[in-house]
Design goal:
heterodimer; A: mainly beta; B: mainly beta; four-stranded antiparallel sheet
Chain lengths: 113, 115
């Protein structure tokens, strides 16, 4: 069935360093890959997304890359700040099946000041 | 636009009781998705509904769980005879009619605690 795997489960970085979170997906029909940030006790919020016709997308300090052949996609956060500390979820969806979104298990990011 | 509204925010039930979780989609949205998040875990798809129809319930446990989205009123996720393992945060998201996949706007969630 559809599956999204995410690594690492926990990531600790020093303020100012970069953080990279990696995901793989199993359904080759997936063509939309959003990333969500969830702060403690809050709802997940969409922070960036990428579609399958694009290999890379950047928005200020965050960027996503997609390798369709390998079914890998990654989130890159540069110049990390303490407020980046949260749980990050990757996800995959497609234009059929009701646009159901499958989430990875999450990465808990700690940014140490 | 008030966004996706979920209530209650917190719900405490004793084992064996029923839990009813409500989700009002954003204005103009006719599609609702329910997800469950166990403590320290990711979001697991439960069910996808359009007005008056269940489209995909592949993530719903076979027993005790049901969902509806009536023509009028919010979507309801109902858990009968709750057990401790049902303790989790339940999030819903809504969307308009779509032709391509897109991101979700989630509600604030209902945190169910079974004691």
């Amino acid at each position: 069935g559809e599956n999204v795997e995410q690594h690492p489960s926990t990531l600790s970085v020093q303020e100012g360093d970069s953080a990279v979170i990696k995901c793989t997906y199993s359904d080759s029909a997936s063509n939309y890959f959003p990333w969500y940030k969830q702060e403690l006790g809050k709802r997940p919020q969409l922070i960036i997304d990428i579609r399958s016709n694009v290999g890379e997308k950047k928005d200020q300090r965050i960027a996503v890359t997609l390798n369709k052949t390998a079914k890998h996609f990654s989130l890159h956060i540069t110049e990390t700040q303490p407020e980046d500390s949260a749980v990050y979820f990757c996800a995959a969806s497609k234009n059929t099946g009701g646009f159901k979104t499958i989430f990875g298990a999450g990465t808990r990011l700690f940014v140490k000041a | 636009n008030a966004g996706v509204m979920q209530n209650p925010r917190h719900l405490v039930r004793r084992r064996g009781q029923e839990a009813r979780l409500r989700c009002s989609p954003m204005k103009g949205h006719s599609h609702v998705y329910w997800y469950r998040q166990l403590p320290e875990e990711g979001l697991k798809f439960m069910v996808y509904l359009q007005k008056e129809n269940i489209i995909d319930e592949s993530g719903m446990p076979k027993e005790r769980f049901s969902a509806e989205f009536p023509k009028e009123g919010p979507s309801i996720l109902r858990i009968q005879q709750v057990v401790r393992g049902d303790s989790a945060a339940y999030f819903c998201a809504s969307s308009p009619d779509r032709v391509i996949a897109d991101g979700y706007t989630f509600g604030s969630g209902t945190r169910l605690t079974v004691v």
